[in-house]
From TrEMBL:
Keyword entries, A-Z: Disulfide bond, FAD, Flavoprotein, Glycoprotein, Membrane, Oxidoreductase, Signal, Transmembrane, Transmembrane helix
Catalysis performed (reactions): 2 R'C(R)SH + O2 = R'C(R)S-S(R)CR' + H2O2
Segments passing through the bilayer: 477-501
Highest rank taxon of the organism: Eukaryota
PROSITE patterns in alphabetical order: ERV_ALR, THIOREDOXIN_1, THIOREDOXIN_2
Cofactor names: FAD
Domain ERV/ALR sulfhydryl oxidase, first and last residues per copy: 304-406
Domain Thioredoxin: 41-173
Annotated signal sequence range: 1-19
Name under which the protein is recorded: Sulfhydryl oxidase
InterPro entries: ERV/ALR_sulphydryl_oxid_sf, ERV/ALR_sulphydryl_oxidase, Sulfhydryl_oxidase, Thioredoxin-like_sf, Thioredoxin_CS, Thioredoxin_domain
Length: 515
């Protein structure tokens, strides 16, 4: 058995152990898993159980804006009686079926467990239960009753579910109700009343869309000899420019091992069916964005109806984010990679054909990143214009999120130096394209990753990687030596594997291009 295999197994074991230590989304997903297996009539446990080993990590990594921590003791009768009230509120905010995901993470800590003694002391817990409120990242500093300036506050009105939810509504200016149900929320921000829609939270949806896209590829056995090249190119683009560090790392892990996982001869006619079945099993071990993703719900890309927005919205945000992160010399490669990926792997037939037709109209190579970003923006508006008419005719659109020309004037007034009649499409608007490009760069660049930067989950400037590091040429058959460098930069865990792989690549005979 090869050395590569054993190094890979070791690396995956390390990753698995790491992912189970602290990741709010792993914990959140366990809520539904635990409930699904209970089979009883007990109410669901939506509150996330934390302890001293994962407390800081979960709260640092949660996408939620606020957190509530209940300190209790399992032997306390009052705590047991309060639990149903707490769960009624937690149902609204926690888990993949949350009515309002990404707003509040509701957790609890059992102070009767020895492991949590110091943690409970850190919050000066003097009676049970005690509930605290604040920004998730601020909980690491604890709480003292006499602190003058503190980000963490004790909740003083919590004794029933109604009281706790009313207290929450007062803090954030909401009007949530205990009977609110999924996708029936009149307070869901609309792209008409609130066109900004918290783009900072979209980075989590970009991760979700990336993981979902690769799940679809595996489920539908879409990796074939004729699509292999386009997948490699797209992976190279993700390694260099995905806005999420964990997706860059996961993409690089697959890319580095691509020749081992997908040798060219495995698609011979007598092996094809068995090969694709094996690929599905093998690649599931390589979580493209880590084992915490997908979470099973959308935040920025959430529609007012279950069947609207979601994956397609997340995929558009991913493509826009890639378009504003590339360098000038990478623009044509990015264009080809995205067009080929959609053409080969996007499973909606009409959407795939329309997108490919727009790609086919481009006759000259892109030389500037600005030109590619503006082309993608224009293509997206063209899609929106077409869908506006179809959805208006068939009444299949999302009433809270109707298709609009982007960006709206509320978000970018300087993009509209003058404007034709409002009923005209994007082509009738006298856009200031310099301002549009500035907006795209800010909106899908800095703003998109601002939440991650605050939590130190991206390290954009410290791990700057370009496509030159990842691909030797756009026609590479074998994953190039630069990919090993990219993965070594992205994660020290895979350093040994990358170095060993690089040494093998240097001694490998060059193969002919497939283009």
């Amino acid at each position: 058995m090869s050395h590569v295999f054993w190094i890979l197994i070791l690396s995956l074991s390390i990753l698995k152990a790491t992912s189970l230590q602290a990741g709010s989304r792993t914990v959140l997903r366990l809520i539904s898993d635990n409930n699904a297996g209970s089979g009883g009539s007990d109410p669901r446990d939506y509150g996330v159980e934390l302890n001293a080993t994962n407390f800081d990590g979960v709260l640092k990594d949660t996408p939620a804006t606020y957190a509530i921590v209940e300190f209790f003791a399992h032997w306390c009768p009052a705590c047991r009686n309060y639990k149903p009230h707490y769960e009624k509120v937690a149902r609204l905010f926690n888990g993949p079926d949350a009515v309002y995901p990404g707003i509040i993470l509701m957790t609890r800590v059992d102070c009767a467990l020895k492991i949590n003694s110091d943690l409970c002391d850190k919050f000066s817990v003097g009676h049970y239960p005690m509930l605290f409120w604040g920004p998730p990242t601020k909980f690491s500093s604890g709480w003292k009753p006499n602190q003058e300036k503190r980000d963490i506050r004790e909740i003083d009105d919590w004794r029933t579910a109604e009281h706790l939810l009313n207290w929450i509504n007062k803090q954030i200016g909401s009007s949530y109700g205990l009977d609110d149900e999924n996708f029936e929320n009149e307070l869901l921000p609309s792209n008409i009343t609130d066109p900004g829609q918290k783009i900072v939270q979209a980075v989590y949806d970009v991760e979700e869309a990336t993981a979902t896209a690769f799940d679809i590829i595996l489920e539908h056995k879409m990796i074939k000899s004729k699509t292999r090249a386009s997948l490699i190119k797209f992976l190279q683009l993700l390694v260099a420019h995905h806005p999420s560090r964990r997706c860059r790392k996961g993409s690089a892990e697959v890319l580095v091992n691509f020749d081992e996982l997908y040798p060219l001869d495995m698609w011979s006619s007598d092996k094809d069916a068995a090969a694709t079945d094996n690929l599905k099993e093998v690649l599931h071990d390589f979580q493209i964005c880590g084992k915490e993703v997908p979470r099973g719900y959308w935040m920025f890309c959430r529609g007012s109806k279950n069947e609207t927005r979601g994956f397609s919205c997340g995929l558009w945000v991913l493509m826009h984010s890639l378009s504003v992160r590339i360098e000038d010399g990478e623009s044509q490669f990015a264009f080809i990679s995205i067009c080929d990926f959609i053409h080969n792997f996007f499973i909606c037939e009409d959407c795939r054909q329309h997108f490919y037709e727009m790609c086919s109209r481009v006759t000259s190579p892109f030389k500037k990143a600005r030109d590619f970003a503006l082309w993608l923006w224009s293509a997206h508006n063209e899609v929106n214009e077409r869908l506006m008419k179809e959805e208006a005719s068939l009444k299949t659109g999302d009433p809270k999120f109707p298709k609009i020309i982007w960006p709206p004037k509320q978000l970018c007034p300087s993009c509209y130096p003058s404007q034709g009649p409002k009923d005209k499409g994007s082509n009738q608007i006298d856009w200031d394209k310099d301002e549009v490009f500035k907006f795209l760069t800010s909106y899908y660049g800095n703003k998109l990753v601002s939440l991650y930067n605050e939590k130190d989950l991206l390290a954009n400037d410290r791990t700057k990687v370009t496509l030159d590091d990842v691909v030797a040429s756009t026609n590479a058959v074998v994953v190039p030596v630069g990919a090993a460098l990219a993965i070594a930069i992205a994660s020290c865990v895979f350093g040994a594997l990358a170095c060993y792989w690089r040494s093998r690549q240097k001694n490998r005979k060059p193969r002919r291009s497939w283009n």
